[in-house]
Amino acid sequence: MKSICVYAGSNPGTSPEYERYAVKLGELFVENGYKLVYGGSKIGLMGRLADTVLAGGGEAVGVMPRGLFRGEMVHARLTELIEVDSMHERKANMQRLADGFIALPGGFGTLEELFEAVSWSQLGIHNKPVGLLDVEGYYEPLVRFVAHAVDAGFIHSTHASLLLLERDPARLIERMESFQPPQNVNKWSELPARP
């Protein structure tokens, strides 16, 4: 992996640990020479992460729709800012530019981006790793929900492993580096498996 897309909250959240881990992840990017691809904001966890990467001499590429957000949200010191016309184009560019994906804590936008990345992995549109940085158990309810969806027959049990959950950012990146996507999994229970 050379570049990693990070989905993260545009708010800092209520726990100081969220910000601390955004900084820790940014430091890891710099230490390992990973390029950051993200939504381009200077605020919230997104901003803390980009600030850390840039302060350490790393590269940060932001992708943001024109006119959708107030100008004061755009990070002014990015290595590169890619302006696009829509949220769909934003996500497509972020996915194209990245070799893997990490979700820090965040809200609806973070979850929507995360689920698109893992859905595309499930469908074989990409074979890139998708990681959850589980700061203070933030993603534990989500992992329980995925297990519930497996039990209910809506997610193949093998596909649950597409979400790599770790509390330690270094361990998460190690797992992402060695990720091997599941092969020949039949997503659709009512269709015969392909030979």
Give a written overview of the molecule.
The chain has 195 residues and is α/β, with parallel strands linked by helices. The chain has one domain (3-177): 3-Layer(aba) Sandwich (Rossmann fold), CATH 3.40.50.450. 39% of the residues lie in helices and 16% in strands. It has 6 helices and 7 strands. The protein has helices at residues 16-32, 44-55, 87-97, 108-122, 140-151, 169-177, and strands at 3-7, 35-38, 60-65, 80-84, 100-103, 130-133, 163-166. A 7-stranded parallel β-sheet has the order 4-3-2-1-5-6-7, sandwiched between helices. Helix 5 links the parallel strand 6 (130-133) and strand 7 (163-166). The mean pLDDT is 93. Pfam families: Lysine_decarbox.
Offer a concise description of the structure.
39% of the residues lie in helices and 16% in strands. The protein is an alpha/beta fold.
Low-confidence stretches: none
Rg: 17 Å
Instruction: Count up the domains.
Output: 1
| Name of the CATH first level | Alpha Beta
Report the structural category: alpha/beta
InterPro entries: LOG, LOG_fam
GO biological process, one term: cytokinin biosynthetic process
Family: Belongs to the LOG family.
Protein name: Cytokinin riboside 5'-monophosphate phosphoribohydrolase
List the helices and strands and how they pair.
Elements: E1 3-7, H1 16-32, E2 35-38, H2 44-55, E3 60-65, E4 80-84, H3 87-97, E5 100-103, H4 108-122, E6 130-133, H5 140-151, E7 163-166, H6 169-177
Parallel strand pairs: 1-2, 1-5, 2-3, 3-4, 5-6, 6-7
Keywords: Cytokinin biosynthesis, Hydrolase
GO molecular function: hydrolase activity, hydrolyzing N-glycosyl compounds
GO cellular component, one term: cytosol
